[in-house]
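Recap slide: Glycoside hydrolase family 92 protein, sequence and predicted structure.
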Amino acid sequence: MANRNLLLCVFSSFIFIVTLAQNTTDNLKYVDQLIGSANGGNVFPGATLPYGMAKAVADVDSQSNQGGFTTENGNVTGFGTMHDSGTGGSPSLGNFALFPYASCPGDDVNRCRFPKKERKVTYKPESVKASPGYFGIELSSGMKADMTTAQHTSLFRFSFPSSGNSTGGSPLILLDLTDLADSRQDNATISVNSETGRMTGSARFLPSFGSGTWIGYFCADFTGAAIRDNGVFVNSRASNATKEIKITRSINASPLPGGGFIRFASNPADGILARIAVSLISSEQACTSAEAEIPDFDFEGTHAAAEDAWREKLSPISVSTTGVDPSLLTNFFSGIYRTMVNPQNYTGENPKWETSASAPYFDSFYCLWDSFRSQLPFLTILDPLALTQMVQSLISTYEHEGWLPDCRMTLCKGYTQGGSNADVVLADAYIKGLGADRSIDWETGYSAVVKDAEIEPFSWSNEGRGGLDSWKALGYIPTQDFDYNGFGTMTRSVSRTLEYAYNDFCIAKMAEGLADEGDVEKYTERSGNWKNLFYGYLFNGQDTGFTGFFQGRFQNGTWHNQDPLWCSTIDPSSSRICSLQNNGQETFESSLWEYGFYVPGDQAGLIATYGGPDAFVKRLDYLHDQNITYIGNEPSFLTVFQYHYAGRPALSAVRSHFYIPRYFSPTNAGLPGNDDSGAMGSFVAMSMMGLFPNPGQNVYLITPPFFESVSITSPLTGKTATIRNVNFDPTYAGIYIQSATLDGKPYTKNWIDHSFFTEGKELVLTLGRNESAWGARVEDLPPSLSEYVGFGNGTVNRTVGFERRWRLEGRVGSVEGGASGLL
Ligand SMILES: *[C@@H]1O[C@H](CO)[C@@H](O)[C@H](O)[C@H]1NC(C)=O
Ligand SMILES: *[C@@H]1O[C@H](CO)[C@@H](O)[C@H](O)[C@H]1NC(C)=O
Ligand SMILES: *[C@@H]1O[C@H](CO)[C@@H](O)[C@H](O)[C@H]1NC(C)=O
Ligand SMILES: *[C@@H]1O[C@H](CO)[C@@H](O)[C@H](O)[C@H]1NC(C)=O
Ligand SMILES: *[C@@H]1O[C@H](CO)[C@@H](O)[C@H](O)[C@H]1NC(C)=O
Ligand SMILES: *[C@@H]1O[C@H](CO)[C@@H](O)[C@H](O)[C@H]1NC(C)=O
Ligand SMILES: *[C@@H]1O[C@H](CO)[C@@H](O)[C@H](O)[C@H]1NC(C)=O
Ligand SMILES: *[C@@H]1O[C@H](CO)[C@@H](O)[C@H](O)[C@H]1NC(C)=O
Ligand SMILES: *[C@@H]1O[C@H](CO)[C@@H](O)[C@H](O)[C@H]1NC(C)=O
Ligand SMILES: *[C@@H]1O[C@H](CO)[C@@H](O)[C@H](O)[C@H]1NC(C)=O
Ligand SMILES: *[C@@H]1O[C@H](CO)[C@@H](O)[C@H](O)[C@H]1NC(C)=O
């Protein structure tokens, strides 16, 4: 609340109450949490609040269970309460699974199968139901589980086939000291209260993509039937005579199974309710949360509150449904939903430093390398209060841990993939108006990004940047750098150089408001370091008809040679090592070809380097048409819209329709890669709403929304911004902007800034079936560090890219196909 008041004072010279216009459309009904629950989307499809810490779902043992549950190839091993969404790497969280048994064979507790490898059961695929704040499933045994959550607490309702049958057995629920990745360390504990059945305890686990360990605590209570007995289990044996254990990991790959159990005297018709809260502070705190958040085990009430929370989060945005295929609405709102599942709000749950409503703590930034591009920028529009808290949290993480994180999960430092991309996150928030927000300590935020740029950490696999001596002396990160100041994986010299350069560009943007001219100049100059790796000739790589790529360079200046297609989707070798391994390449999870576009601060300079806008467009087309880029990984995002910088906004529109819905269908297997904590969801949302960010800059690239209109009410100012398509064509043949007005006046720029949202402007786009000259003149192009050159007298050759585009699309302008695009 304190933040909201502060923001209101800052953002308006007059005080008014923010009331979000309640729209008649219930956006909630378009949310399908199961999108991305198969085919490696790895989303968390269960019950959660926005940014909730409790995330309840059925956990399965499929190969791709990073988010807990999948709709493919898995058997249910339990019902966990902590999860992440859309991550790659090893499965994340899944802690403190419950598992219900209708009864034990022969009524003998030792004949229930406790270890999760033995107890797992198949489920009925058609029984799976997921909606905001809810998940339900029926196992093949006939056992039904429904679940909902509050902030730190899950509520499960287990009903058994013989429910209501007075002689129908004695249900048992166990609580397993486990997680999805079997990462539990030594000395987990559980204690079962024989009177109340309450179970409390804790265990230490490993983070799924980071260093160190963390401890999770829980507090579980049960209701619905009288307690028969309770106790603990170890491996396959249990006893009601023992109420407490401390258990080691043992020496095998999986930790020794262990936990608590509770058995009930009857099998009630309404099932048994299990309430479990988690904490990173103590079991007592978990119990306090449980009692405060779900005091009466009120399933419907908890579910309704979760639904309301989601309804409110989705309420600032409304779209016209006229003519639009409902599947696109599902795609859109489900993408939006996924942007608010992670990061998670762990305020009050941080044992390392005090956090509170005025000093929030967010965790599960997983990872910023993914989310800086469009997810966090999207939240700046839709949920700026949450984004403010995330920025405050990143800055206080810097204060207490010494560095901004690049990736962070469950209190641990995650692995850095490329640059110090928290710099982009801070700059993006700063220039989009949060810079005026005094509740954010921007001076400290600025010292944090400067530290990234100036001081090398001892372990730059976890924070900051490596190779800073070389960076400052040579203006690039050398391939096989000699670096004795700090240590990290000595690969990715090209992608790190490009990312560091853009990170410095963002620092310069912040310096304009927070430091002196000297810093602005210094970081602006360093942002040009990308030029030092441009090699204008072709090495002995595969000839794609293009010459001039970024290449690695040794410390002595000699060029290193990597085939520009390596680590692309069409890499001739499918076994190339392209991630964080020590034997990885000079680009991270991407090729030289694709990284060849990663100069977000100086597109004009890059276009000139490539020989002008036509050559640039040909390259971008080749990148997409030949499948060099992969829309399922985040470096591709901006390349979809970079045509804008060559004066060809029409081609960005075509390209976004090329990918959506072809590569993003609203089906379980519909995502092209891991959702990455909502990064893919935000790509869908922002592409479809027609404004895509160049993060770190006050720039949204304009394309026609996929709907006749989109309205977004700023939660900060209460004003509503609207984008409307005139001549809207739901078959998407007419996706070319012919002219535009902003608040009724002609608007020719192909981009717009964030005041569009905060000031509630109206952008009206008149569409046609041919590319037009709209947004094509140099003065219409988005800002760039260098001047645009090589654009002739301000006209571009619209034949380039477009003719072929018509053929490629088929449905688009097939009648006119082949006609000259020169207007
Ligand atoms: C799930 O269980 C069924 C039946 O026991 C079995 O056929 C199947 O292989 C199991 N699936 C996995 C992924 O273990
Ligand atoms: C009730 O449970 C008992 C014992 O499991 C079983 O024999 C009986 O058929 C059940 N009755 C009904 C109506 O389900
Ligand atoms: C675990 O507990 C045992 C027995 O109390 C103790 O000897 C050991 O030091 C503990 N290990 C850790 C890592 O705390
Ligand atoms: C406790 O366990 C023992 C041994 O399995 C069993 O005989 C007894 O009935 C159990 N107590 C209760 C209350 O069920
Ligand atoms: C949302 O509300 C606005 C203003 O009340 C209205 O103009 C618009 O048509 C509504 N959108 C939908 C999709 O109903
Ligand atoms: C995060 O949690 C804190 C403490 O409960 C709360 O004050 C804050 O409003 C939450 N933030 C968001 C964005 O929900
Ligand atoms: C520069 O260093 C590289 C890598 O050690 C080496 O292969 C190359 O021969 C050196 N070039 C010169 C001119 O010394
Ligand atoms: C690109 O990939 C898509 C999907 O895998 C495929 O349909 C298409 O034929 C590929 N295009 C080229 C040029 O290989
Ligand atoms: C598109 O442009 C071509 C060539 O200028 C022209 O023949 C055609 O009529 C145009 N189509 C529309 C719908 O304006
Ligand atoms: C701009 O350049 C184009 C192509 O070179 C030419 O056709 C046109 O006449 C020029 N326009 C002006 C105003 O110079
Ligand atoms: C425009 O590009 C096309 C295709 O590359 C080319 O054939 C044509 O000569 C170009 N026109 C101008 C005026 O440069």
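The mean pLDDT is 92.
Residues 18 and 718 are 5 Å apart (CA to CA).
(End of recap.)
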